[in-house]
Amino acid sequence: MLEREVAVKLIVWDFDGTLADSRALIVAGMEHALGTLGLSNLPGIREEWLKYVGLPVEEGLKRTFEPLNLDPDQVLKAYRSFDWPGHEHLLVPFPGMDALVKELHGLGMPMAIASSKRGLPLKRQVEAFGWTACFDPFVTPDEVTHGKPHPESLRLCLKAHGLEPSQAVMVGDTPFDLEMANRAGVPGIAVGHGFYDREALEVFRPVAYAPDVPALREILLALMEVK
């Protein structure tokens, strides 16, 4: 656990894989794209694609398909042709997360989201969960020049609240979240219910690891209470 002399003043969250279990929705979009392009039988392609969840989608597709001499722009076009709003019922908060978000908000804890998801779907999905008032700002690829793991997204969250890096924490489920936190000088908290295992996350030296939401709640409440 991180030792702190003052209580944390801002929690910055990743969205997919951290706040929301989006695996089923992302996989459905992947299957649509692969099927559209006749690539469903390409060996190992799903596993390779999932390795880059957490990056802006364009970068993830570039890393997945360029080594195979396939055009990532064509994959992106097919991926975006999926009926995302029509399948958002597949996206749900992780068990206990709705209560935690509302508890923290009720305690007056400022929170922000730094996501690789575009702003329109992110805000629509957050609104569907009833969380819009709980987060400010929402920083997405629409607001930055450099996506994760560049620290720009996190720095914008800090700037919006007038805080120094040591006064915040970043909660995420991917190495890209934790690398961003390291590069911004913000302590990172890794969660184990998302897309990556503990070993992959601990490479980036998070100050705490939460295997599930109850453990995450204990960590965050403790950091809020430090005097």
Features of the shown structure:
single chain; 8 strands; 227 residues; 10 helices; 6-stranded parallel sheet; alpha/beta; two-stranded antiparallel ribbon; Rossmann fold; globular; 2 domains
Quick rundown:
The chain has helices spanning 23-36, 45-50, 57-65, 72-80, 97-106, 119-128, 152-161, 175-184, 198-202, 213-225; strands spanning 10-13, 20-21, 92-93, 111-114, 138-139, 168-172, 188-191, 208-210. The protein is an alpha/beta fold and 227 residues long.
Can you put this structure into words, describing what you see?
This protein is of the alpha/beta class and 227 residues long. The chain folds into two domains: 10-21 and 91-225, 3-Layer(aba) Sandwich (Rossmann fold); 23-88. The chain has helices at 23-36, 45-50, 57-65, 72-80, 97-106, 119-128, 152-161, 175-184, 198-202, 213-225; strands at 10-13, 20-21, 92-93, 111-114, 138-139, 168-172, 188-191, 208-210. It is globular. The chain starts with 9 loop residues before the first strand and ends with a helix.
How many strand units?
8
- The CATH class of the largest domain is identified as Alpha Beta
Cα end-to-end separation = 15 Å
Percent in strands: 5-15%
Number of helices: 10
User: Structural class of the secondary elements?
Assistant: alpha/beta
Shape: globular
Could you give me the name of the CATH homologous superfamily of the largest domain?
A: HAD superfamily/HAD-like
Strand order of the largest sheet: 5-4-1-6-7-8
Poorly predicted runs: none
Task: Write the element-wise H/E pattern from the N-terminal end onward.
Answer: EEHHHHEHEHEHEHEHEH
The biggest beta sheet reads: 6 strands, parallel
Radius of gyration: 17 Å
Mean pLDDT over the residues? 95
What is the CATH topology descriptor of the largest domain? Answer: Rossmann fold
| Count of domains | 2
How helix-rich are the residues, as a percent range?
40-55%
- CATH architecture level-2 label of the largest domain: 3-Layer(aba) Sandwich
